[in-house]
User: Fold this.
Amino acid sequence: MNEFAKHMIKTGRITKIVEEAPNIKTFELSIAMHAEPGQFVMAFLPQVGERPFALTQAGKKIAITVKKRGPFTEKLFSLKEGSFLGIRGPYGKGFSLQNVGKACLVAAGIGIAALIRLAEELAKEGASVTLIFACKSANEIIFKERLEKVASLHIATEDGSAGFKGDCIELLEKVLKKQSYDKLYCCGPEAMMVSVLKLCEKYAIDAEFAVERYMKCAVGLCGHCCLDEWLVCTDGPVFSKEQLLASKEFGRIYYSKSGKRMRFGGD
Ligand SMILES: Cc1cc2nc3c(=O)[nH]c(=O)nc-3n(C[C@H](O)[C@H](O)[C@H](O)COP(=O)(O)OP(=O)(O)OC[C@H]3O[C@@H](n4cnc5c(N)ncnc54)[C@H](O)[C@@H]3O)c2cc1C
Assistant:
């Protein structure tokens, strides 16, 4: 794809909708696109807006897997098979997969959407993949069958309804005490990624993190998704452990929908 074509909104039909969990749906679209694991697309609905999503399927058809949150995702959830959706991209910097023999992937909640294709790609490259997947409850565990084909899956639920009872940080530390890894990859809420970053420092593991910030243009123009001197849309969304350790804003400061500088957890 040339550099101009990827910025044009492609209109595709929704060919399949899968209800993965009570609040999570996968939308398969009649749009062909190649993208690295970790890259994202902007989905467009006229009169509603545009929002960033990871691709949970790429190639002849693409798919996005979406958690219902606010106006855009609510409208998306009301669409039926056969409806149209606009897509531009792929955007951003993906994960690096080179020279990884043993990989540990850590996902919390819908963060799994950014990691599922990475798990599959790493397994295809011959890496051994351990995946720690944490959810509030068993009914939020998605892609179980798909993940078990390529990874040794460790589930944690807050209420203990499946797997380990507790959060992914406790489970990750248990795993890291027993095993060493060449690389760790992580996606989830920023507070959780801060704790994973600390464990990566403690256990001296190379790591990459897919950061999700409020994003508007996706092409480095509006400056809304800044993280220190970086823009998450063009310099990320994947950042290295070293970058995030050097960051003054990661886990501390973010910018609201209207651009107001906010502190995580309030002032
Ligand atoms: C690179 C990237 C990849 C993402 N991939 C996925 C994915 O695969 N699946 C998924 O369900 N969600 C993903 N998200 C988050 C998704 O973009 C938001 O949940 C969505 O935009 C919510 O829009 P809304 O109008 O429904 O809710 P809103 O009311 O706009 O927001 C609800 C919550 O989502 C956050 N949010 C809203 N819009 C954005 C935005 N444009 N960028 C970042 N955070 C936002 C807000 O901080 C708020 O807490 C991703 C975000 C980024 C930045």
